[in-house]
Design brief:
The complex is a heterodimer of chains A (112) and B (115). Chain A has 112 residues and is mainly β. In chain A, 0% of the residues lie in helices and 51% in strands. In chain B, the strands form 2 sheets. In chain B, strands 2, 4, 5, 9, 10, 11 and 12 form a 7-stranded mixed sheet that branches. A 5-stranded antiparallel sheet of chain B has the order 1-3-8-7-6, with no helix packed on it. The chains are: A mainly beta (112), B mainly beta (115).
Chain lengths: 112, 115
Amino acid sequence: EAQVTQNPRYLITVTGKKLTVTCSQNMNHEYMSWYRQDPGLGLRQIYYSMNVEVTDKGDVPEGYKVSRKEKRNFPLILESPSPNQTSLYFCASSFFAGREAFFGQGTRLTVV
Amino acid sequence: SQQGEEDPQALSIQEGENATMNCSYKTSINNLQWYRQNSGRGLVHLILIRSNEREKHSGRLRVTLDTSKKSSSLLITASRAADTASYFCATDPNAGGTSYGKLTFGQGTILTVHP
């Protein structure tokens, strides 16, 4: 089944403890992206990747890192999480940038 | 920055009625897309309309695009309770015909369809 898989689905962590949210797609998509969704703010893009080893900042990249070493994986790294990073995170992929995007089921992160 | 802005923020209708949601954006685009999100779940792609298209249909969905006004509308005809969800427009900003890679979402319209 074609899908984008995020893990974990739910995570509660403490301020400053490094964490990684994984994202994997099995559709051979070139383009992958991370978004965060907050009430009243809609979805905001964190980072995106046009292809392997090519990443770029979205609208809200501060406090996040990404890497794209393989086509199928695009992990989101929070080196030192803070409470303002409490949010619902979505990974998405598409064949190319600007095309129909497929979304993962989301990761609800709480930083206390 | 928010490229797309949906209107209204919330819409409540009865089953069988039509629902219309609007989206305005600021910059030139390659295409505009509409997505649906059921409570807290991942977004699902509904329809994509290119900048050189004016109208597109998919089942009970009708999307229009007016690039001169930088606006789009999504019409859901004969709505059902199962259409209850949040609907988002997303724009792919134009970079000389290619994509910047920054698919940008609006804040969404919450649609409630009462049985």
